[in-house]
Amino acid sequence: MLSQRLSDPSTVLTAAASFVATSMIIRSIANDLIPDGLRSYFSSSIDRFSRRISSKLTIVIEEFQGHSTNELFVAIDAYLGTKVTPYVQRIKASKGENDAKLAVTVDRDEEIVDVYEDVPLIWTLVCKEDESFGSRNFRSRNWDDRNASLRSEVRSYEINFHQKHREMVLNSYLPYILDRAKVIKEESKAIKFHTVVYGLWDSRVINLDHPMTFKTLAMDSELKMTLMDDLKNFMEGKEFYRRTGKAWKRGYLLYGRPGTGKSSSIAAMANHLNYDIYDLDLTAVQFNAELRSLLLSMSNRSILVIEDIDCSVNLQNRESESESGKDNKNQGTLSGLLNFIDGLWSCCGEERIVVFTTNHKDRLDPALLRPGRMDMHVHMSYCTFSAFQQLAFNYHRISQHQFFEAIEELIGEVKVTPAEVAGELMKSKDEEFSLQGLVEFLRKKKIQLDEPETKKDINEDHQEGRDKPDGEGEKLNLAQG
After folding, report:
1. Same domain, yes or no: 175 and 206
2. Which residues, 6 or more positions from 251, have their beta carbon under 8 angstroms from its beta carbon?
């Protein structure tokens, strides 16, 4: 009988209405009979009791710490931007002048759930109005302040989790966010290209917009993989370098004839690592103190490039330097550069790469070539068949063709640079015509190779005379953006 009455919808609605009415009457009587102070006391007591029995812990990270920005808040802002899910309804997007891509962050009152070591962590961006802002703004009369709307509210991130994970969050999770935010910032920034003007790095920094990557670089496939593996080990070697007591740096010597891809390789390295490039022309440096100032002002995660080091007039062989009677101790000599590369100054900064290029490795001071200074010597050879295949795919999007067999045979017999092959492939957008032209070009090269030795020597001397001074034909020209 009772179950039938409860299943009747009208009975349920009547009971609910009666309960609500009774609650309102009790609340009204309590408001009339219980003083405000006593009601406030009971309310705060209940809140304190509920917090004591609650297992939830909240950590608040405010945007500002005194008058300075809270580094942890900025890191969390960048980190949570990578954790946005389709369930988040409001996000903010922005792009700075020095950013390579858009930055996404959460908007106010949005919640994001992150999982770290199998622990769910709930983040919320809380924004409250700054009640003291109005009077401060009135006193300052700074009506044109573009950041006024930003400072008119107090922003903070709140993270909620079970209190038993407190030590893990403070000692592991938040430091992890700080480290991840640095990586995120580096990945989003545009690569910069720096040059020297009047003994200083030019303040007019150029964004590097070079399209070359290891994916498109025309280099022997085995050599390319070796170089990429070496760079990977360097990037992940922070603990190794610290454990072994070595500065976190690495030196690469790229040597080979003009047109073999030395500058393209540097661009590919910068894009692969997302490192800034500092192009140092040693002929523009007169004193060791000037050289030291330039090198110390470089940022971390950067590549120092010195092209055609054998042609830099201020780099003298130390033996010939000592034989001369002149006092060259203040000049920008090879010894000054070497002292920075592996002396005590080398520890001032980390995650730095030094790249030297030369057309004539045999002309270099032996002190420059030893391990610890130039750790890896990369011979930029004449074009191999695997390098040609990469060029054919770059220019014509083909990986196989009837001419490939003849080209493979000819490339194995003649000396031709990747730049020369690329020049032939660029002559026509028609793959058939382009490859046929390359075959004819290689056959002419082979005929010249088979000519009498004296005639070949004359031709080579004539060609060398037409060339620019060593290295000028392949000067670093990376700033295309």
Report:
1. no
2. 341, 353, 354, 355, 356, 372, 373, 374, 375, 376
* C-alpha torsion sign, points 444, 449, 450, 451: positive
Examine the domain organization and report whether 283 and 389 are in the same domain: no
Cα atoms in the 13 Å half-sphere on the side-chain side of 87: 5
Across-strand partners of 65? Answer: 68
Q: Where are the alpha helices (DSSP H) in 274-311?
A: 288-296
Phi, psi values for residue 479, rounded to 5°: -85, 85
Q: Residue 442: which domain range?
A: 385-450
Contact yes or no for 436/427 (Cβ under 8 A):
no
13 in a structural domain: no
What's the structural domain count of the chain?
3
The tens digit of pLDDT for each residue in 194-207 reads 998 888 888 787 88
Distance CA 129, CA 152 (A): 6
pTM of the model: 0.67
pLDDT by residue (tens digit) across 333-364? 566 777 777 766 667 778 899 999 999 998 88
Q: With H, G, I as helix, E, B as strand and everything else as coil, classify residue 194.
A: strand
Rounded-to-integer distance, Cα 15 and Cα 20, Å? 9
**Three-state secondary structure call for residue 59:** strand
List the beta strands (DSSP E) in 280-393: 302-306, 352-358, 376-379
